[in-house]
């Protein structure tokens, strides 16, 4: 691969005698990975049914290398949300943020959802995940991935961090910022990444990153933790951003993180003040590990008084008779005082949220479905958020049954069942979507936007 001349000069300065090894690595095949969705299946159980040959990613408990030729996106288990396809070093940020069930978590730069889906799995349905991205086009992938993973306690926003500050200062006890960056670790993806670097370099990103972290720190609760990461190598976007934060905020300190084979520490000599605590950051170099590279820094805010909030009031929803009839078959525990209605569409989020102004909210919780004239249409996201025993009747196709793929292709099927009406459809014990069955004929309700292509 031909590197831009200025970039090559910079990397020679940073890497010294390691540069030749880095340059040689650029012509190697890229690594490909999947991360198991522990909301739906344990790692141990997934490995028992895994259709691919996989090897462990050493820095995360549920990440695995897989050959691209295995085509993991073309398998029913992917459509059931059992795993997320992710570059292995990009698994580190969500893995290294110590999220516990019950936390209030913010993924500030969340699209397309790789980090948010793992944070949501860590919460295990308890607490709140707020996934945000400033790009409305990018949030389409974010919404789909959150829905496919079956996350029930997520709110999805499209806004700048500064608009969250008035209502949510000190609200989150865990924040992840996988910051927009110059993407020097992504050069092997193609010429677009290189052209972007040649046009912009690091400076505009470093400025943006400082603006983002300034607002994020205000959103972090006393005693809370923030993980900052990028997929670039530039010290101006990495060590120097963390240096900026620490110099500006006396109540912040770096937290040591687990080192794995091939990991490098942060470099004080690449900062402006030579801070020794910068060594507690982590660098992943692509010639030292099996991945494209990353930078990580975990910070903690000092303990202090917890702020109070004015929470949003929820208007009681009046359900149609058809909706009430549908939910008689649903065993999912729903607190109806926390179900919101918008133009007939029902959303469930059991956690209270502060009142917000000037914030574009795309989802407030799990989209259950829509109350229409004479019927209730359950949503695709609701189907994959359920377990097989949370809705009856449930019709399962074996993973090797041709009807599984036909269903995912939105085809109409003939089925051997005397039970009629709305069914939850799945493969083995993993739900995929909905169907309406009448006289042995399955009318497919699988979302056309999720269709197997």
From TrEMBL:
Signal peptide: none annotated. SUPFAM superfamilies: S-adenosyl-L-methionine-dependent methyltransferases. It holds the Pfam family Methyltr_RsmF_N. The active site is at residue 231. S-adenosyl-L-methionine binds at residues 133, 178. GO terms for molecular function: methyltransferase activity. One of its GO terms (biological process) is methylation. Residues 1-302 form the SAM-dependent MTase RsmB/NOP-type domain. Its EC number is 2.1.1.-. Keywords: Cytoplasm, Methyltransferase, RNA-binding, S-adenosyl-L-methionine, Transferase. InterPro entries: Methyltr_RsmF_N, MeTrfase_RsmB-F_NOP2_cat, MeTrfase_RsmB-F_NOP2_dom, Nol1_Nop2_Fmu_2, Nop2p, RCMT, RsmF_methylt_CI, SAM-dependent_MTases_sf. Belongs to the class I-like SAM-binding methyltransferase superfamily. RsmB/NOP family. PANTHER family: 28S RRNA (CYTOSINE(4447)-C(5))-METHYLTRANSFERASE-RELATED, NOP2 YEAST -RELATED NOL1/NOP2/FMU SUN DOMAIN-CONTAINING. This is RsmB/NOP family class I SAM-dependent RNA methyltransferase.
């Amino acid at each position: 691969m031909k590197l831009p001349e200025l970039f090559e000069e910079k990397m020679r300065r940073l890497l010294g005698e390691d540069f030749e090894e880095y340059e040689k690595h650029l012509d190697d095949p890229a690594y490909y990975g999947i991360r198991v969705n522990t909301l739906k299946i344990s790692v141990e159980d997934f490995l028992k049914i895994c259709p691919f040959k996989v090897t462990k990613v050493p820095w995360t408990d549920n990440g695995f290398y897989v050959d691209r030729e295995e085509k993991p996106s073309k398998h029913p288990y992917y459509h059931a949300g059992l795993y997320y396809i992710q570059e292995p070093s990009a698994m580190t940020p969500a893995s290294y943020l110590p999220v516990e069930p019950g936390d209030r978590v913010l993924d500030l730069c969340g699209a397309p959802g790789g980090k948010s889906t793992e944070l949501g799995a860590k919460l295990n349905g308890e607490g709140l995940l707020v996934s945000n991205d400033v790009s409305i086009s990018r949030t389409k992938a974010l919404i789909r991935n959150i829905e496919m993973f079956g996350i029930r306690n997520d709110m999805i926003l499209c806004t700048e961090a500064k608009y969250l500050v008035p209502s949510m200062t000190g609200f989150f006890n865990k924040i992840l910022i996988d910051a927009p960056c110059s993407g020097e670790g992504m050069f092997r993806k193609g010429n677009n990444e290189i052209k972007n670097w040649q046009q912009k370099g690091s400076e505009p990103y470093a400025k943006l990153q400082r603006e983002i972290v300034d607002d994020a720190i205000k959103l972090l609760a006393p005693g809370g933790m923030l993980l900052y990461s990028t997929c670039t190598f530039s010290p101006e976007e990495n060590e120097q951003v963390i240096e900026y934060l620490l110099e500006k905020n006396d109540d912040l300190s770096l937290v040591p993180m687990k080192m794995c084979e091939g990991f490098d520490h942060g470099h004080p000599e690449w900062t402006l003040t030579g801070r020794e605590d910068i060594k507690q950051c982590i660098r992943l170099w692509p010639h030292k590990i099996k991945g494209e590279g990353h930078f990580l820094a975990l910070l903690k805010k000092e303990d202090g008084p917890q702020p109070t909030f004015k929470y949003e009031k929820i208007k009681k929803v009046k359900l149609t008779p058809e909706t009430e009839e549908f939910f008689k078959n649903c065993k999912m525990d729903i607190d109806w005082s926390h179900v919101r209605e918008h133009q007939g569409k029902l959303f469930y989020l059991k956690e209270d949220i502060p009142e917000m102004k000037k914030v574009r909210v795309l989802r407030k919780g799990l989209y259950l479905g829509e109350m229409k004239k004479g019927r209730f249409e359950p949503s695709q996201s609701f189907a994959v958020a359920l377990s097989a025993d949370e809705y009856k009747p449930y019709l399962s196709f074996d993973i090797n049954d041709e009807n599984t793929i036909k269903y995912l292709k939105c085809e109409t099927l003939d089925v051997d069942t005397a039970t009629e009406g709305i069914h939850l459809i799945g493969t083995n014990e993993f739900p995929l979507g909905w169907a309406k069955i009448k006289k042995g004929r399955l009318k497919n309700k699988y979302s056309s936007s999720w269709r197997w292509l």
